[in-house]
Every structure is written in structure tokens, then in C-alpha cells.
Design goal:
Elements: E1 6-13, H1 19-33, H2 37-57, E2 66-73, E3 77-83, H3 91-98, H4 115-123, E4 126-130, E5 136-142
Antiparallel strand pairs: 1-2, 2-3, 3-5, 4-5
Helix pairs in contact: 1-2, 2-4
Length: 162
């Protein structure tokens, strides 16, 4: 089966010191895809917030846990999955089980994590939070083509301006 996206998955220990590894990986992926500096910063902040929520809230203090982060790379957007139950995921199957983005509980209705979830919602184009298998956050950011193209306009030379 040929899927329409490339997929990268990583697992980190549920410890704050590993969130930077996720940010660095994301920065490399987003840069390669052509996101602007500002968009990459937004992606990093939103993903860091999702990872930090998982690290802080998913496991008991004495419990060793993992956070799974998946990156689905499409031609026109990036989808990021952050899950706190440490299991390996079939990205497509999990996405289908969750369903369309608009049918899940809205970010505004979620209490845990407070400001972080509002930030995620503000910085990303689409956000979906699923609670059945631990907490899984799907975030989508579309690639904006901001490059200025030549449109066959002729430039006025300085000699023509009086």
C-alpha cells in the first residue's frame, strides 16, 4: 500500500529534558518542507506544549513513561501527533478511528493543561484531541506558499524616472 505521506515516529522518555529533541527534529522537517521561520517557531511552540502536557500529566511521579511523536509529511501540510501512552501507532488507523477534526471535543472545552491547549489551538490550523488511549493530540499546519513569483511586470529603470 502506497501512502500519500512520509511518516517519521519517535519516542522520548516522558521527561522535560527530551522535549528539545522533538523541537530539533520538527525544526529540521519543517525547514526541509519550506515553512517560514515564523511558521517553524509556531510549530515548535505548539508541539512543545503538547509534549510538555504529556510529560507533566500522563504519568505518576514514580512511573516511567514514554511520549510518542509522529510527523506525517504531506506535500501541502504537516500533521503532528503527540501521544502519551507510549505505544507504537499506525498513524492512518489512529487518524481514522478519531475521525474528522471537526467532530471531536474542542480544545476550548478541555480543562487539563490550561493555557498550553489554547496556545496549540491558536498556532495550528487544525487540532484534535482524543482521550480513548491515553491522550493523543493531532495538529495540522498548512504550508503557505509566500514566495513572490515574477508576474511578467516590467520594471521601470531609474533612467525613465525624472
Amino acid at each position: 500500500m502506497n501512502q500519500p505521506f512520509d511518516y517519521i515516529e519517535m519516542k522520548i522518555p516522558a521527561k522535560p529534558e527530551y522535549v528539545g529533541v522533538v523541537r530539533l527534529t520538527l525544526s529540521g522537517i519543517a525547514n526541509r518542507m519550506g515553512y517560514s521561520y515564523e511558521e517553524i517557531e509556531d510549530l515548535k511552540v505548539a508541539t512543545s506544549e503538547a509534549c510538555t502536557n504529556a510529560v507533566q500529566h500522563a504519568y505518576q511521579a514514580n512511573e516511567e513513561g514514554e511520549v510518542t511523536v509522529g510527523y506525517a509529511i504531506y506535500p501541502n501540510h504537516l500533521e503532528i501527533m503527540v501521544a502519551d501512552n507510549g505505544k507504537s501507532f499506525n498513524f492512518t488507523q489512529m487518524k481514522e478511528e478519531i475521525g474528522p477534526y471537526h467532530t471531536s471535543q474542542s480544545v476550548e472545552q478541555l480543562q487539563e493543561g490550561g493555557l498550553g491547549l489554547y496556545l496549540i489551538d491558536a498556532l495550528m490550523d487544525e487540532v484534535n484531541v482524543h482521550h480513548e488511549y491515553g491522550v493523543t493530540v493531532f495538529m495540522k499546519k498548512y504550508l503557505q506558499k509566500r514566495r513572490v513569483e515574477n508576474d511578467d511586470r516590467t520594471e521601470i529603470s531609474t533612467s525613465e524616472v525624472k
